[in-house]
Automatic annotation (TrEMBL):
Residue ranges of domain HDOD in the record: 11-207
Any Pfam family matching the protein: HDOD
Record-given protein name: HDOD domain-containing protein
Entry-linked CDD domains: HDc (cd00077)
Length: 283
């Protein structure tokens, strides 16, 4: 048996609605817009949650939003796509969300996703803002598969994850014969996600990025690093060294990243969508 297959079995099958929505072109015409509404309507639970978020303060309107068509129009396709993925992910893993690993995993993944969005704005890459959000949310998906493969085995690697990517991958390979980046790529491919997602899962934290989607992978890699130092006063020399090649490629300056240590999480406390996401994952 291929060494990957046992780990792929530990990840749920991505629902059709989510995978089909990812294939929709973003310059949607009326036909594809109607098809999107039809697809979402097939899942009453998903429809109800989208309407709930649409009626939150983030999308507040004078009248209650009761129709899916109205919600899609107000939120826009990119936001709808991100929301569907968030809701799908929270449903797929809801039974295990209370474990310490899963709480840590989704906290890190959500913060990485929101930081990725902000970095896109700061670096002039707004065109890939929502895609980077989703890539950030799912970049470490391979960790789930490894964690599920053997009871308590992944606990030995926990001190390294999101602190030292190279050390994490080497420890995973030593223990499982595969690391979370390799298996993450395979999971994205098995879900038929766009190449940008599988490449981000497979190459984040890598200094020798081969993917044509390097810009997104660099953004997510910076966000991934920043999540581990949000509560520190300043960047250590080790962190500066890790960030440097990514900053050179993105055009971002180290001083700009001080915002994430000083203000980002404070602002997130007042961000309705971030708080809604935390509720979805029971964080």
């Amino acid at each position: 048996m291929d060494k990957y297959e046992q780990f792929l079995k530990n990840i749920p099958i991505m629902p059709d609605v989510a995978t089909k929505v990812l294939t929709f072109a973003e310059d949607m015409d009326e036909v594809s817009f109607a098809e999107l509404e039809r697809l979402i309507s097939m899942d009453p639970g998903l429809t109800a949650k989208i309407l709930k978020v649409a009626n939150s303060s983030l999308y507040a309107r004078q009248q209650q939003i009761s129709r899916l068509q109205t919600a899609i129009s107000l939120m826009g396709f990119k936001a709808i796509k991100s929301l569907i993925m968030l809701l799908t992910a929270s449903n797929m893993f809801s039974q295990k969300s209370l474990s310490p690993f899963y709480k840590y995993f989704w906290q890190h993944s959500l913060v990485t996703a929101f930081i990725s969005q902000k970095l896109c704005d700061m670096s002039g890459a707004s065109r890939i803002r929502e895609e980077s959000f989703l890539a950030g949310l799912l970049h470490d998906i391979g960790q789930m598969s490894l964690y599920e493969s053997e009871l308590n085995a992944y606990d030995k690697i926990m001190p390294f994850i999101n602190v030292d990517e190279g050390k994490t991958c080497s420890e995973e390979t030593s223990m499982f014969g595969v690391n979370h980046r390799e298996i993450g790529r395979r999971i994205m491919e098995s879900w038929n996600f766009p190449q940008s997602f599988s490449d981000t899962a497979g190459e984040h934290g890598n200094l020798n990025i081969q993917s044509p989607h390097k810009e997104m992978i660099v953004i997510v890699s910076i966000a991934d690093l920043l999540t581990s130092v949000l509560h520190e006063i300043d960047f250590s020399e080790k962190m500066k060294t890790a960030l440097d090649p990514y900053l050179k490629y993105s055009g971002l300056k180290l001083e700009q990243l001080n915002y994430f240590q000083d203000k980002f999480m404070v602002e997130m406390k007042d961000d309705p969508l971030f708080q809604e996401c935390k509720s979805l994952f029971r964080l």
